[in-house]
Here is the input.
Amino acid sequence: MTGLAYNNLAQEKIWLAGGAKIDGEVAISGAKNAVLPLMAASLLSGGECIINNVPRLDDVLVMLSVFKELGVKADFCGHTLRLDCRRVRPAAVEPKVLGRIRASNLILGPLLARFKEAEIGACGGCSIGSRPLDLHFAALEALGAKILPLEGGYFAFARELKGTRVTFPFPSVGATENLIMAAALAQGQTVLSGAAAEPEIVELAAYINAMGGKVCGAGTPTVVIEGVKSLRSASYTVMPDRIEAGTYLLAGALAGGEVLLRGARRAELAALLAALDAMGVTWRETAAGLVVCGGSRRAIDIVTAPHPGFPTDLQPLLTAALCTARGRSTVRETIFENRFTYAAELKKMGASIQIRDNCAIINGVPALCGADVAAGDLRAGAALVLAALAAEGESLIAGVEYIDRGYEDMVPKLAALGADIRRVKLRARAV
Ligand code: EPZ
Here is the structure.
């Protein structure tokens, strides 16, 4: 390994020698952005819930640390999660624990519904944007909740929650999830217009209905929830992670050979598959999942949008694949205000990218070169891994902790496909 800097304290990184073709099959894990709301919805029940196909991710473990403080008895064995919510209490959770994961704001709806009080951290912003909670709060206040700002968080309470009509000016995924969970035990009917329609919302509604809830219209902009008196425990299997699947589709497009994504579902990836068609990438659907083949790619123009539009979570991964496409591409980000920080890292690898008005202008280059780079968020980290896979030479990628939040076993999965990749612990030493 020459020329790569060793100027870090003991820090884990990903080392990768690019250029190897990847071939074979990769199993897609359960969906992070479905399992987190399902865990939150389990708080609505007075029993023991079982969730199968749960990915072993740091975000799941952090959510469990929040649940522990709420009195949930959890058992996470393999990919099966048992949540005993019989002794849950809406205790004040340590702000430093709540602040570690934005999705902890999803305890707001269920705790308000079941206990008429809840406390969350100021788990708003992160590197990709300010991520306020105003839509969550407005929706819960419409049901009758009062939400007070606290030192480092918020305290919510209600005498009762009554169903009503709520309209979102923007289809916020989290706000839709919080409202559905709160309305599930409210008195009467709630009609939500302008709801997010992501597949993870459909999954949440199916889980609440399996608990005895009455949620209709999930997956469309209008969701109708009939409040019930109580919800029982349920057993449920989480859908495959469409963002992980999209990540490996783009990895195969960039560095394949031919890769089978076992368990990937075409319906949830329509926007990406249409983009792959436009890029001239070969893929096909089989009974086992989706197969993608590597090869040269055409430049395209993409705009991210709420589902069923092109998902913002795949924006960094697509940009990495367009760095070596033939021609000039544009990727416009419309969901988050700061989701191109990784572009500077791709430039260290030789990419030609300009960011203007939240839009990346990418002029394809013949190849990228390995470099010492750092990720600032989860999907940026995955994008740098993909770029390094096809780059010439070695790369060292910092920010593994971000990747571990959202990708189960990314390094072993890519190594099993033939990538020359490993996690390395670097000690401080002279360059
Ligand atoms: C969910 O975040 C996902 N996270 C995100 O995935 C995903 O990028 C996002 O939805 C959009 O699809 C989980 O499901 C755990 P939003 P969420 O509320 O619910 C603004 C990943 O990489 N907004 O739909 O927080 C907000 O600032 C993560 O897996 C308000 O203005 O997303 C953002 O610009 C990243 N006020 C936009 O809406 C609010 O009250 C989308 O946010 C809420 C949101």
